[in-house]
């Protein structure tokens, strides 16, 4: 579905007229701004929960530098899946593991053998490369922001999930009974994300990726889908 088709289904699902919505402000664009923001938010959340979008890009590890910022080079970066140098894999680790192996790991020079990331931006490698070194990073990425009547990047079979999220997001501002109906849609959205995350997790294990989607089955959904 295109963004316009998703928008029309969202509006129809909240008993509004897609051609002349009364509950949503329109600026004359194919998709009202509030609806477009909800669709983009839903696609970003789906991508983060499932890690369904991947990319491969070179990233330069500066000489004599342990720490760096990934998003300065890759603004769509979410999590690392594999890091390699000259075809040799750099192993993932945690700061605690590196401290246990070598309390001077931040000052070692050589071919990087371990790496870790913090959040969506910060990374570290050890040993430090003696010269600027080009590595290859496979990573889960965020989707492109939808504009006009674009096509979402998440798998087509889950475009309907963006309809569900959009209905929830629009109802969120109403509170009361409207919010309760919206939460039903959000629960269905999470069920879709869980199903696809299970598929991506199996595929990622087969590829021996360093990061897997979170276990949504273990997440207490009642904390976010049950009105208080």
Provide a descriptive summary of the structure in words.
This protein is α+β, with helices and mostly antiparallel strands. The chain has 2 domains: 117 residues, no CATH class; 88 residues, no CATH class. The protein is built from 6 helices and 7 strands, in the order ααββββαβββααα. It has a 7-stranded mixed sheet with strand order 1-7-3-4-5-6-2, with no helix packed on it. Strand 5 and strand 6 form a beta hairpin. Helix 1 crosses helix 4, helix 2 crosses helix 4 and helix 4 runs antiparallel to helix 5.
Please summarize the sheet with the most strands: 7 strands, mixed
Range of strand content = 15-25%
- The residue fraction in helices comes out at 25-40%
Strand numbers in spatial order across the main sheet:
1-7-3-4-5-6-2
The pLDDT mean sits at: 91
Q: How many helical elements?
A: 6
How many strands appear in the DSSP assignment? 7
Radius of gyration (Å)? 21 Å
How many separate domains make up the residues? Answer: 2
Order of helices and strands: HHEEEEHEEEHHH
| Span of the ends, CA to CA | 34 Å
Structural class: alpha+beta
**Model regions low in confidence, pLDDT < 50 over at least 5 residues:** none
Shape: elongated
